Amino acid sequence: MIQHKQVDVVCYITEIPWQLPSTAPLYLLRSYIAVPHSRPIASYLYFGRPFTWNLWLAVVATVVYGMIMLYASCGSARSEFGLHLLSSLCHILFISQPQQNICHWQQFAIHFIMILSGFILTNLYLAMLSSMLTLGLFEPQFNTLQDLKHSSYPLMVDDYYIDYLKHAVSLPAEVKDQMLIETKENLFIARTGLNTSYMYFSYEDRLEAILYQQHLLKVPRFRVIPESFMDGLMALPTAPSLPYLSLLNAFLRRIFECGVLNKMKSDAWMDAIDSGIFRLMRNEGTERYDLDFYFFVFVLWAVGLTLAGLCFLMELLRWHINAILFST
After folding, report:
1. pTM exceeds 0.85
2. May I ask the CATH architecture of the domain 50-136?
3. Element (H, E) at 11
4. Using CA atoms in the order 192, 195, 199, 201, what is the torsion angle rounded to 10 degrees?
5. 29-40+139-231 belongs to which CATH class?
6. How much of the chain, in percent, has pLDDT values that exceed 70?
7. Which of 68, 166, 245, 325 is most buried, by CB atoms within 10 Å?
């Protein structure tokens, strides 16, 4: 249509392989891949995430240290090893415990160190857990094109770009093998609806318009891989020998330099939402935690009951053995 001068200007970017007259390029327009945001982890795993494994080892070491030091500070006096373990655990968890008989300043120093450690660790744990519950925890994100080789999402494209994508050097072979060819209509519906079953590829200005729908969401549906593998020119194809081409170039350059072009793009996004082409997505109500969130607590409770039952059985066995020895 342009070559036959049926239209003067086409409002579409000029791709570099095209041999068509166009306006003066304003800037290089890059293309990116939009991938679904990583999935949230299971809610019951939150309880173990505030501390790393080495910090958990430090907590265990602190409990063992307090137990040993309290037992050693008793000297020749008779003491129960389990009572010192319970006291050390209560200090680390920063909870109340039975009244302690402090015999000398060494025991006072040990109790003070344990209480201070418990105060710091419990407050750090609660602060980290509350922030994680507010922001959420997710699986690792895809940050580069090479990370996409581990993705299970197919790349939905139309037949126009399929040949170029198959020969793209920076695109992993695993992604090329999972490309899904669809019609332009199905691609438009899936991409504008932000269907999280696929990955999508487009120029950055179109991706900005599509992803504008999710800017009110707490957790976005898609994120853009910040690596380009195909570039185009921000220039509009024109008919040959367009008489007002110089005036059009000056107009485009001025609205770009003055920021009017960005205002026109944002207005176009809002008009697309008002007309129903796009929809502004919002979070659906308040997040509630189901029984899966307390699964880890139930497991700890069951483990505690099991250990308590085993200790009770061992105490009964010890009492029974002592009774037999004394009777003989």
Report:
1. no
2. Orthogonal Bundle (1.10)
3. none
4. 0
5. alpha beta
6. 93
7. 245
| pLDDT interval class at 34 (50, 70, 90) | very high
CA dist list (Å): 266 to 128, 150, 208, 259: 38, 35, 10, 11
For 117-126, what is each residue's pLDDT tens digit? 888 888 988 8
**Model confidence band, residue 254 (pLDDT cutoffs 50, 70, 90):** very high
3-class SS string, the chain:
CCCCCCCCECCCCEECCCCCCECCCCCEEEEEEEEECCCECCHHHHHHCCCCHHHHHHHHHHHHHHHHHHHHHCCCCCCCHHHHHHHHHHHHHCCCCCCCCCCCHHHHHHHHHHHHHHHHHHHHHHHHHHHHHHHCCECCCCCCCHHHHHCCCCEEECCCCHHHHHCCCCCCHHHHHCCEECCHHHHHHHHHCCCCCCEEEEEHHHHHHHHHHHCCCCCCCEEECCCCCCEEECCCEECCCCCCHHHHHHHHHHHHHCCHHHHHHHHHHHHHHHCCCCCCCCCCCCCCCCHHHHHHHHHHHHHHHHHHHHHHHHHHHHHHHHHHHHHC
DSSP letter at 160 equals: T
State both tokens at 174. Answer: 């695993």
